[in-house]
Amino acid sequence: MALLSSSSKWPTLPGYFHDWALVDVETSGLRPGRDRVLSLAILTLDAHGRQTGEFSTLLNPGCDPGPVHIHGLTPARLAGAPTFDEIAPQVGALLSNRVLVAHNAQFDYDFLAHEFAHVRSWVPVSRRLCTLALNRLVGPATPDLKLGTLAAHYGVRQEKAHDAQDDVRVLSGILRGSLSAAERLGLSLPLLDCPPRQDYKPYVPKTPCAYRNPGRLEAGGRLVQGMKVAISGDTQVSREELVARSVACGLNMTTSVSGQTSVVVANDPTAASGKLRRAATEGVPLVDEPAYLRLLESVQPGQTKGTVRQRPAAETPVRPPTAPPAPAPSVPAQRTAVPPTYVAAADRPLTGHRVLVLGGTHQEAAEARARAVAFGASAAVNLSASVSDVVVLSGGEADRRMTRITALGLRVHDADWLLAPTTTLTLAPVQSTAENRPDLAAVLVRGAVIDLSDTGTAWTVAAAWRQQTAYEVDVVAFAVDAYEQVPGDEDFVFYGAPEHPDGTLRLATDGPTEQAVTADLERLPLEIHRIVIAAAIDGAATFSDVGAIEITATCGIGVAPTARATLDAATTERTMILAEVYRRGEGWRLRAVGQGYDHGLASLARRYGVDIAE
Known about the structure:
single chain, 614 residues, Nucleotidyltransferase, domain 5, Rossmann fold, 6-stranded mixed sheet, globular, nucleic acid binding, Stress/Tellurium_Resist, RNaseH_sf, hydrolase
């Protein structure tokens, strides 16, 4: 299906009518709040795609400009530029009451949010649209979703990469083409609410406790570095001083009590506090303040956490910014065998196809997707340009997407087609052309594993579900040790704490039905053996209400997925482990899991040793 749009018309669907502020920033690094914006460009469009304003400037960040070989912005070029506080009012006026648009929008939005925080203000934007996320939904016939690749696909000339002014011009063409393609597919735009916030603070490095948790304080025993300590109630020494002295001794101070807490400091053990009730339930010992102060005088040395594996100099890849991505890793044998009633392992006639299943009960749809995967296809959860076949089960004829499917001329089948697709329709492998590119990602069934290449680039595991889902799904990640416990509460990444203090683990939200976890595997401490990626549903809804969740693994921003899996495992469950990234010798592997649980996120977090406040 060709969605080329060098002459695309602006969409006519009312849901696509917004005033837009297209943004691109060049920065001194990748950490918002720590690094600064060096160059900013904004292009404003009205609801019909007509340009209404334009602004661009270099900025003096007051710090080292970072990777000059990428953005070309030397200290000399930036020396006479204005500071952000000088242009903040003008930038605010251009963004106000408009939808912010950017490619990898969370990056640009977070940098702007921190720049506004530096001048004691906030980004006057209530919604944003990521063109990278939008094109993941569209699924254009491109080898990847990088800005330059999409520019070529949508007929936009790119003159100077990593130049904010040219990038935002290119972005305007990509937006036009993407909206036109999305309209043809009948997609809802992945607009993400981001109400103005004033809680963005400059980056302050946080040093997690450097020692492993040795367990509970024994009666008559001594404190050991790494012990988790909670304080409940009033203290004679100020709470701040008590915490500071404890941290200086190598203790891990927490704000709540769990089964992993070593001791609770409380002067009134009879007080009706949530911490003391939880301590009683978990059997956590209590000490009063005078006893605790005496224990602080002789804290025993603890076991330090593992350090990051250092790549030998000879291994360090030297790759110019324009070099092609490393080839996808090979897929080892799957651990979950293909059911023999479906198809022999050597006979996979649907390899390269994307199959969308409509209608049926949750169980019927799950079985249909499993059959499609067994024949070599990948199972889609949304209609996109990459979908090659549609299977309609009972009730699927009434699906709102059928009108678009008919207009697009997609191949439509009934459930019997999946019993033996080669007997009813001869399908050669999809040819790799500009208009019909096969899905080259490795398709993983539940329990299957794949090796992750060691290229020095962070890996991202993204989860997506059906666009029309009315339930809130939260993706989280736990970085656990060999004992399946988080070394510290900071090793739990979720919507309230979306980034590990050292930046090795991050959570990104790219749309209402897509969230992703990015892990810098080479920088993870050696004690981290596994990253558990899970999803949870708010309220009383279950995963049968949400339906299938598709996960993809990619190495880098905008690159094609290395692997994908569609998980139907959960029905009545409210939390589900989606995938695990785990050490295998000197390397890492990804496993598609799909294991659901009836309990909520708090119970799952406690299972991995996270302190959850009562």
